[in-house]
Structure formats: structure tokens, C-alpha cells
Write the C-alpha cells for this entry.
Amino acid sequence: MGAENLAYALTQVVHNFGAVGVLGGAVFAVWPDSRLSHGRKLAWLIFGAWSAQILSGASFGATSLYYYGKTPDLSSIATAALAIKVAAALAGLALAAWYLRRGEQWGHAGARRAFLGLAALAALALTAAAFLRWFS
Ligand code: HEM
């Protein structure tokens, strides 16, 4: 029980800080003042945070598999919420990677749209997290 709870808690620590990184990094880039001159550094932070979300999300599942031999039974609403989180995380990771590869050619307006998109994906995933938690 102690080891199991520790595994979930440490995974949750990474997952919580990852959530702060994906939303906070994107909002910080555009609001209240534009910090797009630091766009690449922020995009690396956000890219790392999306990666952390995907790895720690998978680690929740792996911990359940290890201790129970199966993943939790989810209601249809919880399953939809999890699918939304996974889709948002993959899209966020891809958008951050795309910005890191091509963002210098996008100009101020294009870069701003990219960070707003990253913030929207993070907000969507956080909203879905609440439904996953309470409809599981
Ligand atoms: C591949 C992507 C992801 C997977 C597989 C995943 C999976 C999970 C799982 C299994 C839980 C535990 C649910 C429970 O306590 O019942 C969880 C919790 C959580 N996830 Fe994710 N997640 C992913 C992405 C994200 C993202 C992108 C965010 C935020 C930006 C996020 C935010 C949260 C939060 C805040 C919680 C805690 C909810 C609570 O206990 O109140 N997750 N996630």
C-alpha cells in the first residue's frame, strides 16, 4: 500500500507541475504583455511540460497495471474525458514542436496564435481532467 501510494503520488507531482507548465508557459508568453521575444525558451518549457504530461499520464496507467493487473474501469464520460486529454496532449506536443521548428518564420501574429492555441489546448485538458476525476 505504501509503495503503491508513493508511486501514484510521485506520478501526480510530475503531472501537476506539467499542467502548470503547459498552461502557465503559454499564458505567460502572451499575457499581460507579449513575451514572444522569449518564444523559443518558453516553447521548450511547454514542449517539456507536454512530454511530462504524456509520460506521467502513461505512468498512472502503468502503476494500476502493475498493482492491479488492469487499468481502472471508466464510465463513458470518464473515457471521453481521457480521450480528450490524450488528444490535447498530442496536439500540444506537436504544436510546440512545430513552433520550435518553424516559428521564426511565422511573424508576431503567427507566433501569438500558436501560444494562444497552446493555452487553449492546456485549458481543454485541464477541464477534461476534472471530468475524468469525478466521473471515474
Ligand atoms: C496523455 C495524456 C494524459 C493522460 C493519459 C492522463 C491521465 C491521467 C490520469 C489517469 C489521472 C488520474 C485520474 C484520477 O485521479 O481519477 C490524471 C489526473 C490529472 N490530470 Fe492527466 N492525463 C493526461 C494529460 C493531462 C494534461 C495535458 C493535463 C493538464 C494540462 C492533465 C491534468 C491532470 C490533472 C490536473 C489531474 C488531477 C485531477 C484530480 O485528481 O483532481 N492531464 N491524468
Remarks:
- The chain has one domain: 2-135.
- The chain has a mean pLDDT of 97.
